Amino acid sequence: MPGLRAPSNYSEEPPRHPCLKINAKEPFNAEPPRSALITSYVTPVDFFYKRNHGPIPVVDDIERYCFSINGLIEKPKELFMKDIRNLPKYNVTAVLQCAGNRRTAMSKTRTVKGVGWDVSAIGNAVWGGAKLADVLELVGIPKLTSVTPWGGKHVEFVSIDRCKEENGGPYKASIPLSQATNPEADVLLAYEMNGETLNRDHGYPLRVVVPGVIGARSVKWLESINIDAKVCQGFFMQKDYKMFPPSVNWENIDWSSRRPQMDFPVQCVICSLEDVNVVKHGKVAIKGYAVSGGGRGIERVDVSIDGGKTWLEASRYQKPGIPYNADDESSDKWAWVFFEAEADIPPSAEIVAKAVDSAANVQPENVEVIWNLRGILNTSWHRVQVRVGHSNMDSG
């Protein structure tokens, strides 16, 4: 592809921050410490989780970089970066979350297949770029279109990225045309992240950002867009990232029986405490993030210091010092919400957090009831074990 290429090995990988916990080296998959997530409402690029399926593509000539739009449309077209930058620019604050976030905890119930993630395969960024609805108008598809005159109903994004799951072919995924052409869905072709040019790990020079949907659909390193009658038939839409019941295993799985996962469920995680934490006597700060897919807000976050027997409601905010209200137009509907509570804890305690979204969806109590063989969408109550003690410094 002009200006952009996919390396055949891992010799041209970009530098990464040393604090990241590496869950897989080749391809590179890593997450920050959970405490780093709550230091800033907008996640710094260095601390934003890295999720890859192959070597990171390289831009050799940004002036020559272009991508094509084709398929069931009247006039296929090639677009360059200047064409995208000439469109109105929008900044959208949105969470991206890997469907496998918290997979490691799910695997403790029963073994699952996939990269082991703790709780930090998630980040909140300000994405800058053109709305996909505006881009599709350039090829004659009006806004709020659900089907083209030629039968196109889905928008497939194809990456320059090459991955073994596609037998060396490109990573790809799709969303419904009705979502792609809806300006209110805020689907972007993004060239900026947190006010700066995208870096290579996050899709330079151009990526898709689909707010409110699992990260697997926000395709990086865009090579082409295809308007199709059917959902993308690629591996990651048809044989991965689907939610199966606990009764399904690798012997009886029927991939065609389930739809590709899109929205993610309500989720919250305690970030101020590790899984086994020794804390000083006195009030303990319980802080973390909460988020729900599909643009649903967070109605409530409940915190317990006795394993879920009794509860107290945490405060919620997006901007520091401003209480969060999901109905407030100034709230970022695609972003996460921070929560905070303080409590005196007994000598040994299980601290639990659960969130409720604006549709009254609530996290399930136990991971066992949502266990699935791919280990996706672990949204069970988040639990940390703590005990009151003294650090080595206190003992002097």
TrEMBL record:
Q: Which Pfam families match?
A: Mo-co_dimer, Oxidored_molyb
Which pathway is recorded for this entry?
A: Sulfur metabolism; Energy metabolism; sulfur metabolism
Q: Which UniProt keywords apply?
A: Metal-binding, Molybdenum, Oxidoreductase
Question: Do you know which InterPro entries this protein is assigned to?
Answer: Ig_E-set, MoCF_OxRdtse_dimer, Mopterin_OxRdtase_euk, OxRdtase_Mopterin-bd_dom, OxRdtase_Mopterin-bd_sf
Q: Which residues form the Oxidoreductase molybdopterin-binding domain?
A: 53-235
GO MF:
heme binding; molybdenum ion binding; molybdopterin cofactor binding; sulfite oxidase activity
Q: Where is the Moybdenum cofactor oxidoreductase dimerisation domain?
A: 260-388
Classification via PANTHER family: SULFITE OXIDASE, MITOCHONDRIAL (PTHR19372:SF7), SULFITE REDUCTASE (PTHR19372)
What is this protein's name?
Answer: Sulfite oxidase
